Amino acid sequence: MSFPPNSPTFVSKNEFLEYLDTYVFHFDVNPLYQRVVESAFFDNVDGKWHIKAMNVERNIVENYVVRFLVVATGENSEGFVPRIEGLNEFGGKIMHSIEYGNGKSFKKKDVLVVGCGNSGMEIAYDLANWGAQTSIVARSSDDGAIFDENGMPKKRSSCHWKGEKGIYCVGFASAGLFGISSDAKNISEDINRILMHVDNKMNEISSSSN
Ligand SMILES: Cc1cc2nc3c(=O)[nH]c(=O)nc-3n(C[C@H](O)[C@H](O)[C@H](O)COP(=O)(O)OP(=O)(O)OC[C@H]3O[C@@H](n4cnc5c(N)ncnc54)[C@H](O)[C@@H]3O)c2cc1C
């Protein structure tokens, strides 16, 4: 679903939320919130995925049995602090981007942002706006071996979104929202194709048995 034609190139937070609300309404999506998926396994007997999810609101475990499973847990859901020599001896505050709210408490302080992905760039920009003395470091030594001249990974598989036995993943192509949208379309078309094939087979079986 496209953004309204008069939308700016970079939509505001509120416009984006509005888009999500319209999307949910348009496609009649009914997400279940406050669930943390704890496990999923494929049962060869019934040919379905069995999922255990914790309902954190009610503190109970819920079970779901489904034919298709789409994993869309994000590439950056959990914070990871790499082991850096000398980090333990550093006397200042160390913070992962996942803990960052805003730069208010960093005013006039020296801050080094490590890494210049989406989070690093936006945090550095926010810190500078709050009056911090901000520096940013970017790893560049081996980027040339991994990325092409456009800054995209050289190794791309056209079917990275599809696993076996009806499992799929969205959002792991390092291609932002565009990649996610493309994965989602590929997956819905693939599931549709499979379901149509099953329907056709069922029709063939029922017409041959009549
Ligand atoms: C600061 C920043 C700025 C960005 N700016 C842009 C931009 O301008 N343009 C752009 O295209 N992209 C941008 N991106 C990237 C974009 O936000 C991500 O690519 C996108 O949000 C990923 O969406 P996703 O649905 O794959 O994952 P997420 O948005 O990470 O969603 C994953 C969801 O899965 C949930 N989850 C994880 N594990 C479980 C579990 N076990 N059970 C249940 N739920 C679970 C998480 O709670 C989360 O809600 C930006 C990212 C950051 C961090």
From TrEMBL:
Its cofactor is FAD. It is an enzyme of class 1 (oxidoreductase). It comes from the Eukaryota. Transmembrane segments: none annotated. It catalyses: indole-3-pyruvate + NADPH + O2 + H(+) = (indol-3-yl)acetate + CO2 + NADP(+) + H2O. Belongs to the FMO family. This is Flavin-containing monooxygenase. Its EC number is 1.-.-.-. It comes from Datura stramonium. Pathway: Plant hormone metabolism; auxin biosynthesis. Keywords: Auxin biosynthesis, FAD, Flavoprotein, Monooxygenase, NADP, Oxidoreductase.
